[in-house]
Every structure is written in C-alpha cells, then in structure tokens.
Write a structure and sequence with these properties.
Two copies of one chain form a homodimer. Chain A is of the alpha/beta class and about 425 residues long. The first copy, chain A, is built from 16 helices and 14 strands. In chain A, strands 1-11-10-9-12-13 form a six-stranded parallel beta sheet, sandwiched between helices. The longest helix of chain A has 30 residues. At the A-B interface, helix 4, strand 2, strand 3, helix 8 and helix 9 of A face helix 4, strand 2, strand 3, helix 8 and helix 9 of B.
C-alpha cells in the first residue's frame, strides 16, 4: 500500500503501472495443449483433465438428471435473488437492441445496417474458489437475447465430476442445455476447434486464469473471436470530503478479495481522508473470510492525494480502470469527466457489488487499461452488424461518375468497369 | 477456376477453403522489428525504411508545404468525386451515433451506456501499387465523427520521399494533420509504442500486406486494440436466371484485380449460366490493365451450381464472404437469408465498387470467414461504450438483499459487506 501526495504528471506512469503479466512464458505449454486438442479432440481433453485436475469424466455433457438435482439443491432465497438479477440484466440488455434504419445517402442510394446474432458462441465459466454463476448470467443473457443458435458452456467439474449446482441452475434457467464439464486451456481449445462432442464456435467469452487467458489470445490470433483481452480485476475510487470513509473502505475491500493480483486505487483530496479510509480498511479486514487474499491485493495498491478535481480525473482517465466509483455528493457532474473506464458507479449508494451481480449492467469489463479502447460485454458482443445497400438505376447514375473517377485514380480499372458496364446499359435505353 | 455441380454438404468445407495464410513463419522477423522500434524509436524506423524501402526520410511528419502541393495537384473532377463520397460516408456514419438512454431497471436503480471516443487512434494506409485514399476516407471520417482527440496516419513514401498526393489531399480535407511517412511493420510498431516523433495510440486500423497483418496481430496480443484480423479481399456473387452475366463477370473481375491472393466465388442455379459468365470474364479480362493479377486470383476461385435457394444461402453463410452480391430480381427478399457476410449488395445495380468508394457504407470489412463473428468498421469501432449506474437509497434497499444473497453464494463476503454497510446506515435512520 503506497500513498502519493500531489504527484507530478511525469510520475503518473510509474504510479499507475499495473503488476506486469507475463503470458509469453506460458505460451509454449498452452500452445502444446491447444495443438493436442485440435488433433486428438476428446481424448486430449480427457488426458489433460486427468493430468491437471485429477478428474476422470466419462461424459462431459451435463445430463438432465444433473440439471434436476442442481435445481432442487439451490435454496429459494438464492433462486429469487438470481431471478431478480436476471430480470434487470435482461431489461438492460434488451434495450440495446436496434432496428435497421434505412438511410438514403443520395437519391436512389439506400444503405442500412442490420444486427445478426453470431450463430455459435462459447461461454467459459471458471471453477476454483468462487463459483462464478453471476458470470454465466452476464454472458448467457445477452447471448439469448441476441439469438445465438448454439450456445456452449464449458466449466470444470470438481474432483468428483460435479459442477457447482448454482452454475447448473443458472444454465437451466437460461435454457442453456449444452454444458460441458471441461476446464482450462483444453476447454478453450475444444470450443475453438470443435471435438467429437463439443461443437466449434466462432467467438469465446469468459474469464479465466492466466493459462485460459493465454489460450484465448492464441486462438484469437488464429481467427476465433474473443470477448476482450483479460487481466486481473481492479477498481478505482474517487472520494472527496463528502464521501463516507467506511463505504469507501468496503468498496476497496470488495475488489481486493477477488485475488491476490487484484488492484485497488483510491484518489482523494486530502491525506487525512486517506488515513481514515486506511483505518476503516484494517478494521473491516479482520472479519473477512478472504482476509489473506485481500491483504495481498492491498499490497499492490495505491492511495493518491490530488488537489485539483480535473487533474484527479485526468489521472483516473490515464489509469482507465475497469470499475470507477465516484463517491461524492457531486458525483453526477463528475461522471461527465470520465473518458476511460469500463463501468462507472455514481454516488454513495452505488457500490460496485450491485453492478457485479444485479443492477442490469454487464460485469465483463476491460481491465489493465484496455478501457482506453475496449468496451465491456454487451448485446453488441453477440451480434455482427452487417451493412446492406441497394441502388436504383437512378441511384447508380447519380453516384456512378464519382465511383469511376475514384477507381481510376486508385488504378483499379475493373472497379470502374463494374460501374461503367451498368451505366452503359442504363443510358443506352 | 473450379466448377462444382450440386456439391454435397459434406464437400462444402473443402470447396469453401480459403488459400491458407501462414503468418507464423513471419513472426520472428516481425517480432524483431517491433522490439527494435519499441527500444530505439525513430532510429529504428529510419533504419528499416532504408533497409526495406531504400528511402531516407529526414522528417517523417508531413508539413504544410507538402499538403499545399498535394492539394493543387489533384484535379477538380477527382476532388468533386471525393467530396461526394465524403458526404455519403459522413451521413451514413453520423447516423450511427446514439444518445445515452437511462433505464430504470427497478425502482431507484438507474443504468445507462454512453459512447465515448477512443482518444488516440492510428490509421495505416498502405503504399504500393494502388494508393488507397478511399481507405483513408473510410477510417478518417468515422474517427472524426467519433471525436478522437488524436488521429495519427502512417503511410509509406515512395523512393523520393513523397506520399501520393491524393492521400495527402484526403488527409487535409478531413483535417488530419499528423501524417507520417512510415510504412510496414515499423509503422505499426511506432503507433503501438510511440516514438520521439510518433504519438502512441490505443487502437490501430487499416489494411496491409502479410507483414503488417502479422505486426497488428502481435501488438494486439500485447494489448493494443486493432480493427479486425485481416486476410485477402473476397467477393461471393449469388446469381439466378434474372442476373446479367456481363454484370456478374464485371463484379467478379473487380474483386479479382485486387491481388493474386483475392478470391471470388459464384453461386448460380445452372451450369449454363456459369458458362456464359466465364465467357464474359475472358472477354472483359482482355482489356484490363491488371489482367495478370486478376487471372491469378481467378485460379483460386470457385463456381458452384446449387439447385435449392435456401441451400445456396446455407453455403454462402458457411463461406461468410467479405462482400456478397445478390444478383436477382428477388434480391431484396433473398437478403433476408444472409446470416454471415461483411457487406451485402442487393440487386443488379448495386456493384461492390459503389460500396468500396462512395455509397456511404464502410469498406473495411471482415475477410477469411471472420464475418461469422466480426463486423466491419463503423462508428462503433472508434468509441467505447461505458456503462454508468446510479442508485438512490431506495434503489439500494430494493436490490440490496439480492446482491447480498448472490455474493454470499459465490463466497465473496466483502462484496456482500459493501452493500450491508450501506443498508445498515440507511435502515438505521
């Protein structure tokens, strides 16, 4: 935990540096597994499940009995909570649908775009310490709204060949019937190349450890689309004198508990405020089950005092946080200063947790400063926007000469001729 | 040129196979150049310009005199044509702007998305046999509409250190003043890492040869966004008995002249029609300046007879062409069958050329079957969609319990506490 007081702009890059991630050293291992899955399909998958996870799964596809068992084992309170989240996420993502709008760019020249679902998508849900059923909601709901024809889910089983029941419950709730007990690099390979049992997909979504991330990068380079590049989760909080230090501390801890590599950043107006937040952090930390993880994450974290508000947001935009919480009575106006962020939480009663689970926005967001160029997952992530155009004869006459001129100037005569041959036919008549 | 009559579905994958592209063999070379540019900046750029292009450029940044010279050397007819194209492209891309829409997903929970321009973007315009000023229109116009603060253009100079005047004219017309005489891998490296003279950008757009493509892949893996993966340009034409064989031949040739690695595909209802088109191709080919290139491209090309219309579009969707021309009186209805394509040209008077230059749609499109998961460049490509949320106290009370339940079920206690600490404060009062 490092505190910086009024840092000079020249010092920002070093202050804002993320813990570096070295995927290259993993590449050889990951590449070997991917090639094996491509070549040997299901056999390779079984081999690595045994080797890495000590699991022997005969049928990787989850069956109806397992779905039914899962459904009966989830308590009603959690089902209600999941249902509320589902409603909000559905509403927010349904409103992202757009209808084609035909534009007559000049008389007789009609152009439009139409959103068409990506036909086959794969969703990866990690296993491990936290069963991320919320991620399945965040990916499965927009996939269903978009209308993807084939939605594959891969998630690793435990040592007994079981998948977390809440994950299965959510899959069933969303009508996702193709859930495979496959994890890690081999899951990414299975979806990228297809195997005897797992269908090949065109785009792969979902978080994962550094091996999964590396695998997604490699298959992306081979032409399979991915949601976005991934890095450890992170939050930045801007807090002024109107902020509640205990709330700020709770928000920072809720990020820090994600993993030892998570990063939290607090930008405040005074050193005194930062000290109060630090005390609140230590006090709240004592009661956390994931105390050790949070403590490690806090070691990577920075507390920065900034005098000028515009400069503070300049620094935050330079950092481009995955999550940005604006803890201020003036938060609504300050939100207008945000240029680079994945998702922004405005005011004292909008903790990141609500967006992580249930408010409706997506929690799959760009980390590692990728928010400078990438958006979080949305309905857009599951569709292609295909352009269409239709010209009348009049339209081609209106635009034809310009196209002939430009094609000629680019030295592409056949491009010109494709217009000329039509103009000759039209004007001859 | 290969003709297939009523191919079985099992034969489709081999018929639709693209010429394979092997970027991996280039990777070592490209990686070396990128590392050198990252380490040595402008000096490395000069070194490679001399080595690969035999050019010694002292000042890579184009100056006002060069813009003025270019402007005076472009003839008025071409200027008018470019202006018409600019108007149409501007209109089509301006209409892609969206305003934030606030959605109250449940009482007191407000969520919305806001489009914010990517601040720094780089546009690569190849040199070589065809000066692609049209690509500068297609990338520069949406970048300007989005409002990117810094727009960098890199394009190689000729042996005399000059850039094609039409490219400079278009840059000037669009108000793009940062044009650098840098080409190839070193241009991608310069924009990805920044040098003493070239600013670093967050996203790189534009076509290029296989070295440039490989460089874009590598910097993408390092976290710099790119427009899309690239492959050779391609067109598929669907033509029924109402199509004009001479028009179809002209459209196929306009694609074939792009490069020896371009691919064209014709799907027709009868073998007789295909024969007539082939004759028209041979006849039109004789007069083309780029005859040799087009002939080579035609060697990679397939002519397929399909009986059933739905099956024909099944095959076309499986191919997922960059450009799809539907040459039929019934084209409008048939366009509804398109699931995978970059851009679709409907009817007898909508040649691909109009979309390549001037109708308004973007010509930077997904090739190599990437249209299954990727869209062409649009205004979306130059913005991030940032999500925002703001909860009232009432909103947090309404959603809080659900979030607490879900966080607890995922084993993320600090996520729960960030809500609980606020609920305690609200409900105490």
């Amino acid at each position: 935990m490092q505190t910086y007081i009024f840092p000079q702009r020249s010092a920002w890059p070093s202050i804002l540096q993320r813990p570096s991630i070295d995927h290259e050293s993993l590449e050889t291992t990951v590449d070997t597994i991917l090639r094996d899955v491509k070549l040997n399909g299901d056999n390779a998958i079984k081999k690595y499940a045994a080797l890495f996870d000590g699991v022997a799964v005969e049928n990787t596809l989850v069956d109806e009995t397992e779905f039914a068992e899962a459904k009966s084992s989830v308590n009603e309170e959690l089902k209600n909570a999941i249902n509320l989240a589902k409603e909000n996420i559905t509403l927010f993502h349904e409103r992202q649908q757009t209808q084609p709008e035909m534009i007559e760019t000049m008389p007789g020249v009609f152009c439009w775009r139409k959103n068409v679902a990506i036909e086959k998508v794969g969703l990866y849900i990690p296993g491990g310490s936290a069963p991320l059923f919320s991620t399945l909601l965040m990916l499965g709901i927009p996939a269903r709204i978009a209308g993807s024809r084939e939605i594959i889910v891969c998630t690793p089983s435990d040592k007994n060949g079981k998948i977390n029941p809440v994950i299965l419950y959510v899959a069933d709730l969303l009508g996702l019937k193709k859930v495979y007990k496959i994890g890690g690099v081999q899951a990414i390979g299975a979806m990228a190349y297809g195997t005897e049992t797992v269908p090949q997909v065109s785009k792969i979504f979902g978080p994962g450890n550094q091996y999964v991330t590396c695998a997604k990068q490699l298959i992306n380079k081979q032409g399979v689309a991915i949601d976005m590049p991934a890095g450890p989760s992170e939050v930045a909080v801007y807090a002024d004198e109107t902020a509640h230090p205990a709330f700020v501390a709770a928000d920072l801890l809720s990020q820090a508990e994600h993993g030892a590599d998570s990063q939290v950043l607090l930008v405040a107006k005074t050193e005194a405020f930062i000290e109060v937040v630090k005390q609140a952090i230590y006090s709240q930390l004592q009661n956390l089950e994931r105390k050790n993880i949070a403590e490690k994450a806090l070691q990577n974290s920075s507390f920065i005092v900034m005098k000028d508000t515009n400069e503070a947001f300049g620094l935050l935009n330079e950092y481009a946080p995955e999550h940005l919480i604006i803890a201020s009575d003036d938060a609504e106006a300050l939100a207008g200063l945000v240029v680079n962020a994945g998702s922004v939480f405005i005011g004292h009663y909008s903790p990141e947790s609500v967006g992580d689970y249930a408010s409706g926005t997506n929690h799959t967001l760009p980390t590692n400063s990728f928010a400078k160029a990438y958006s979080g997952v949305s309905l857009d992530s599951f569709v292609k926007k295909i352009t269409f155009q239709q010209l009348t004869k009049e339209g081609l006459v209106n635009i034809g000469t310009a196209v002939e001129q430009m094609a000629t100037a680019e030295g592409l005569q056949a491009h010109k001729e494709a217009v000329s041959i039509r103009l000759n036919e039209i004007l001859k008549k």
